[in-house]
Amino acid sequence: MRRFVGALRPLRTLTLSPIPTALRVLSTASASSSSASAAASSSDSDSAAAPDADFDSSEFALPPSGPTPPPPPQQARNPVSALRKLRFDPSLRARADEALFGKERGGVDDAVEEERSREVALALLEAALEPPDDDLGPGEVREEDQMSLSVGIVGAPNAGKSSLTNTMVGTKVAAVSRKTNTTTHEILGVLTKGITQICFFDTPGLMLGHHGLPHRDVTVRVESAWSSINLYDLLIVLFDVNRHLKTPDTRVVKLIKRLGAEVNPNQKRILCMNKVDLVEDKKDLLKVAKEFEDLPAYERYFMVSGLKGKGVKDLVQFLMEQAVRRPWDEEPTTMTEEIMKTISLEVVREKMLDHIHQEIPYVIDHRLMDWKELKDGSLRVEQHFIAPKQSQRQILVGKNGSKIGRIGIEANEELRSIFKRDVHLILQVRVAKKRSA
Ligand SMILES: Nc1nc2c(ncn2[C@@H]2O[C@H](COP(=O)(O)OP(=O)(O)OP(=O)(O)O)[C@@H](O)[C@H]2O)c(=O)[nH]1
């Protein structure tokens, strides 16, 4: 089920002080598949699922995914406190002095001086061990040196926005599939390289000609998307050039022309022809470039294949060069548990979209029910699909569990390769309980 999340939300978060990426990713991703909804638990659904409605990766033999990550390093000993504990017994010290210097040393003055020099040595050692205020760890960048860029990606459904984002960011941030409108929420992708950070925003629903759309929420979504695009530093207008050559979509042409006509001094715009790998005669690409060449707002034209990665390096390089001196909005991405949870949902969702070619994926409630990191470093991930109707459940399960099994096996493989560890994936398909009137 598609849920509307206003396009302004990620922009608003851009102006906030740094919040770990994971929290924001989850806050936008929480529509129907958040781990938070796990609390709703299986009470929403019939608990008696048929055995073929389950997938359990432990029933499939897979080679181990490599060495288990080492345990966290032990806390290093603090040499200052160790030194503080090293207070000699004075009588032992006197005996040592005698043995070394052949006479009994020092009166009261010597003792005081010795104690003072010991304190000075200790203070010096403490100061030496204290990291300087601006000491930066490896890869850290001072705030005043940081460069940032916010990028909105605009395009018709299925133009390849998610695939391109994934390729640029280098992690799986969005479910990619053959279906249109797979982006059920704005997915934030963050690329941090050297001193530069680029935040990518998906802008679902930004299309012209929305008059007459059946649902009011769709109209609201479209309007909200339009009103927010000017807030990005840079806009990528993306279209499927292969489709354009075969069956041009007048709405897409209008979109490209409208965004290319109005110059916005505060925003750079670029036009990206995507899926160039599908175009057999490359000369056709020049024809398309010519068709849109007189649009003043487009600073550059790129021909890319987001899926195959063609031309993406040049595009990323160009984006890096457009960054402005501004502190980063996001912590440089580390694979936190919250990001991993989101990825686990996205990967399973992607496999479901690949295998179920009806409206089913959009009406099914998909939840993360359990997430555990086991002692051996492996992960136990349990997700449930809750279908409104028995017939929908049956389509997702497939004959003798063949569909859910395939989804599970493929998702499990991919999660193992992303997380670089063993993943015990459990998927259950249930039917929602009928609410009594
Ligand atoms: N051959 C080819 N296929 C691509 C390319 N980019 C995307 N695709 C395919 O096009 C389909 C749609 O891609 P997505 O990235 O989901 O498109 P999207 O614009 O994010 O779609 P929505 O979420 O519906 O807005 C998927 O089947 C992709 O595999 C490309 O460069 N070449």
UniProtKB/TrEMBL annotation:
Gene Ontology biological-process entries: ribosomal small subunit assembly
Ranges where the KH type-2 domain occurs? 356-433
Locate the region Disordered: 32-79
Could you tell me which residues belong to the region G1? Answer: 155-162
What's one Pfam family here? KH_2
Q: Which domain of life is it from?
A: Eukaryota
Q: Where is this region: G5?
A: 304-306
GO function term, MF aspect, one: rRNA binding
Record region (G4): 274-277
Is RNA-binding one of the keywords?
yes
Into which family does the record put it?
Belongs to the TRAFAC class TrmE-Era-EngA-EngB-Septin-like GTPase superfamily. Era GTPase family.
Q: What does this protein do?
A: Has a crucial role in plant growth and development, possibly by influencing mitochondrial division.
Name of the molecule in the record = GTP-binding protein ERG
